[in-house]
Structure formats: C-alpha cells, structure tokens
C-alpha cells in the first residue's frame, strides 16, 4: 500500500499537469468526512439514490427479474453503511426471497458494523461479508452457479475515466454468467447550479475532504505541505458532464517529501487535480458499456431526475 501510494504521489506530482488519485481520500479521517458529505444539504446524490431505493423498491425487484423460488446472490461492491441496500433487503426478506447478501468493502470496520446492524435489524437475511479487492472476491464467487446481482451504487463509477469504466464493467462481466445483473448508480448530467454546490458546500466539509489528501501525504510520506497555502477549487461544465476538484497553490512554493527524497515546486495558481466525478446520461452509458457484454435492461430515476439506477444485464 505505502509503496503504491509513494509511486502514485511521485508520478502525479512530477507530471506537467499535477494530479493525485482520488482513492487516497479514504483514510480514517477521509471516511468520516465522506460520511459527513453524504449528510450535507448540497450533496443531493445520496438522497436522490435513497429516494429510488425507498420509493421504487418494488420497481427495482421487478426490473431485476427475481422470483421468490430462485435462490440468488446479491453482491454489493463498496457496501459502506449499506443504508440504501437495507431498503431492498427489507422488502426481499419480507416477500420471502431466498438469497445471500455479500457486502464487499475495503474497510473491515465498515463491514463489521454493517453485519452487526443487519443481525439486529434483519435477522432473517444471510450476510456473508467479504473484505478485500473487488475482482479477487468476484473471482472467488464465480464457481457459485446461482444467479447474481451486483450492486455498484453511489455513482462510485464516476471517479473512473470512461475507458477505465468500460474495462471495469467488462471485468465485472467476465466474473459473471449470462443473465446476471448489474445495478449501477449514476449521477445524471444536470446544470452547474445544482452540481457545483455539491462539491463546494457552505460548511467547507468537501474542502476539508480535499485538504485531507495533503495531510495524509504529510503524515504517511513525511511531507511538509502547508495546507493553508492551498485552496479547494471545484469545476463543472454541463456540456462535458464532468465535475473536477483541484487544490490551487496560493503562492510560489516548494514542498519536500521525505520518503521520496524529493522536492516539488508549485507556481502561484498552479493546480493539483484531485478528483474527477463524471455525470451521465443514456448516451454516455451506452458508450461505456459498448465494449462490454452488458445491455441496459431498465433505468429507474428519482423524482427530481437527478440520479439513475441503471440495470444492466449480461
Ligand atoms: C463517492 C465518488 C461518488 O464523486 O461525488 C464527494 C466522492 N468527492 N464529494 C463523488 C466525493 C467529493 C463521490 N463519490
């Protein structure tokens, strides 16, 4: 982990357009800040997807073409607190569907908590937690010949460039069988007046989330970033449908990173790109899944049409 982190920071800060991978946001502080983000009034994504899981649970079950006499596996990639999924689990359980729920996450802590919650809230549901790499886990589940439903919610796909998303979905498909389903959460393209505040909230939680990346580099790689010398800057163009976050250097400065034995110069106004959050429409989704074995079978949107859950069939 540290070796890869060192390499990614080295490569990203040495590039002419400096960038850092957004996956490194999620250390202990970053996880807590992201939970806070999900509760912010400006961060509509979580509530919009929750609206679908709360008000169209029946529609989801119909679209997944499940039947009560067919035992299936429900696998959630990046389960986190499982708040949305609990709505679905509840209705499936109530209606007597037979299935196992496999929450997959990199955080053992999140999995333990989710398992404990489910044990008390939905004691009838079989929960098999899996900690680790998504694809290693899917490969290990491939021999189970039951029909599978994969959940990949929250527009987590949005951090991937489209080519990477295509590869990711292709790789998911190669671990599944024909007829298996992928329920993909996707934030929809909409005006900047709605998207931008979600990445620039008035309480400054998203800014803190962004700065935490530098704090993490300071702590784990022995760097001397002065956080006060950088400013959080989000951007979004509706035309392109992509939100990006940057850290902008407020002054000419040099930052030393001890574990890389290297210094990096920043000009005043120079930016580090720290996150890409893609937004979608049917055309973009079609383009992405074009190179995979999947077809769109259904689409469910929230009341505001901010967010969609696409159901893809292999
Ligand atoms: C977890 C990747 C969906 O891009 O909206 C929230 C992460 N970044 N605020 C997103 C995030 C800043 C989030 N995803």
UniProtKB/TrEMBL annotation:
Keywords: Methyltransferase, Transferase. Transmembrane segments: none annotated. GO terms for biological process: methylation. The keyword Transferase applies. Residues 5-313 form the Histidine-specific methyltransferase SAM-dependent domain. It holds the Pfam family Methyltransf_33. GO terms for molecular function: methyltransferase activity. The keyword Kinase does not apply. This is L-histidine N(Alpha)-methyltransferase.
């Amino acid at each position: 982990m540290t070796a890869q982190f060192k390499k990614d920071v080295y490569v990203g800060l040495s590039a002419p357009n400096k960038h850092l991978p957004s996956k490194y946001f999620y250390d202990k502080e970053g996880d807590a800040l992201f939970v806070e983000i999900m509760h912010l009034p400006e961060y509509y994504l979580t509530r919009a997807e929750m609206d679908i899981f709360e008000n169209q649970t029946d529609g989801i079950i119909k679209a997944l073409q499940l039947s009560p006499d067919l035992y299936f596996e429900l696998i959630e990639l990046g389960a986190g607190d499982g708040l949305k999924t609990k709505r679905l689990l509840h209705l499936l359980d109530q209606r007597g569907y037979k299935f196992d729920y496999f929450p997959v996450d990199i955080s053992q802590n999140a999995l333990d908590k989710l398992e404990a919650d489910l044990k008390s809230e939905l004691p009838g549901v079989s929960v098999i937690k899996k900690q680790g790499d998504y694809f290693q886990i899917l490969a290990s589940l491939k021999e189970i010949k039951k029909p599978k439903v994969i959940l990949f919610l929250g527009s987590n796909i949005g951090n991937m460039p489209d080519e990477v998303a295509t590869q990711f979905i292709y790789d998911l498909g190669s671990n599944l069988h024909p007829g298996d389903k992928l329920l993909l959460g996707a934030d929809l393209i909409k005006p900047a007046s709605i998207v931008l505040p979600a990445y620039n909230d008035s309480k400054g939680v998203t800014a803190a989330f962004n700065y935490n990346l530098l704090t993490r580099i300071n702590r784990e790689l022995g760097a001397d970033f002065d956080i006060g010398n950088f400013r959080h800057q989000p951007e979004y163009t509706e035309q392109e449908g992509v939100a990006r976050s940057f850290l902008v250097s407020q002054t000419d400065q040099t930052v030393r990173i001890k574990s890389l034995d290297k210094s990096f110069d920043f000009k005043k106004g120079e930016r580090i790109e720290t996150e890409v959050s893609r937004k979608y429409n049917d055309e973009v989704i079609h383009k992405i899944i074009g190179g995979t074995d999947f077809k769109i079978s259904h689409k469910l949107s929230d009341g505001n049409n901010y967010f969609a859950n696409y159901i893809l069939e292999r």
